[in-house]
Amino acid sequence: MKKAYLLGLYEKSMPEMLTWAEKLQAAKNSGFDYVEMSIDETEAKLSRLDMTDGELDKIHAAMRATDLSFKSICLSGHRKYPLGCPNKQKQTRGLEIMKKAIRLAADLGARTIQLAGYDVYYEKESEQTKADFLKNLNIAADMAAAEGVQLGFETMETEFMDTVEKAMRYVNDVNSPYLGVYPDAGNITNAALLYGGDVECDLESGRGHIVAVHLKETLPGKYREIPFGTGHVNFKKIIDKTWSLGVRRYVAEFWYKEGDDWRRELTKAGKFIREYLDKE
Question: Cys bridge to 231: 28, 78, 226, 268, which one at CB 3.0-4.6 A?
């Protein structure tokens, strides 16, 4: 019987030097249903947005050979080129990145692009950066609508957009079926602790607009590289709640650490998460 959900694997959970086919096969061998491609702020990853037809053909060949796909993209390249950047050249570059990422997603058959919830990251926030961010989000939503690609805000580790409720303010302002929320379980758990809030209530605020969920472990004040089961994220509560909200796509987010038995870590992570999902 086919599962009622899909569980994806974050690309950065595997060594960088692996080929496309090796990454897809490793994910498949570990029980994952797809891989979420990373387009971060490094030039190496941003260059993926300008791949030649021949380079794209290699990805398609790898997907056919492994019978596994890149069904989503984690687009964190806007850290360096944010949509609200006071530097207009960087802002324009940010829109170019958005356009190319949407085109790449459409080419790969990826359904979802996770957007970083920042108006700016390295620069100083202001009312103008927020206004430019909203203006460019409207442009991005129209771009996504043309290709039928879903955009979803990641709830971040910074105050600007660390909750679903905050993300929904922009989702409601743009009011497009192609812009939603893609919560990070670890980040909203830390935000709930910080503000004295409730994770389930926060997720409820995104009802009808949550496109997928990043399942990541955290500790108070710590947002990365916490092994599953050693932090304070209540995965059962988050999966139960998001499932009740209609979510059926989840991605295990964790990072490869040099020297680790990474294949074993993939298997452990998949087993840990499926224990919750398979009970739904």
Answer: 226
Percentages of the chain per state (helix, strand, coil), in multiples of 5: 50, 15, 35
| Domain CATH number, residue 180 | 3.20.20.150
| Residue 179 within any structural domain of the chain | yes
Longest Cα–Cα distance in the chain: 53
The per-residue pLDDT string of the chain (280 residues; one tens digit each, 9 = 90 and over) reads 368 999 999 999 999 999 999 999 999 999 999 999 999 999 999 999 999 999 999 999 999 999 999 999 999 999 999 999 999 999 999 999 999 999 999 999 999 999 999 999 999 999 999 999 999 999 999 999 999 999 999 999 999 999 999 999 999 999 999 999 999 999 999 999 999 999 999 999 999 999 999 999 999 999 999 999 999 999 999 999 999 999 999 999 999 999 889 999 999 999 999 999 998 7
Q: Which two tokens stand for residue 178?
A: 């192609």
Task: Tell me whether residue 248 is in a domain.
Answer: yes
Query: HSE (CB half, 13 Å, CA atoms) of 69?
Result: 11
Tokens of 202: 């926060």
What is the domain count for the chain? Answer: 1
Q: Domain limits at 206?
A: 6-277
DSSP 3-state of 56: helix
Own/partner long-range contacts of 47-55 (Cβ < 8 Å, ≥24 apart): 48/104, 49/77, 49/97, 49/100, 49/101, 49/104, 50/100, 51/104
Do 94 and 81 contact (CB within 8 A), yes or no? Answer: yes
Alpha-carbon distance values, 88 to 85, 95, 109, 128, 159 (Å): 7, 11, 31, 12, 24
Secondary structure string (H, E, C) spanning 84-114 = CCCCHHHHHHHHHHHHHHHHHHHHHCCCEEE
* Calpha distance 69→237 (Å, rounded): 29
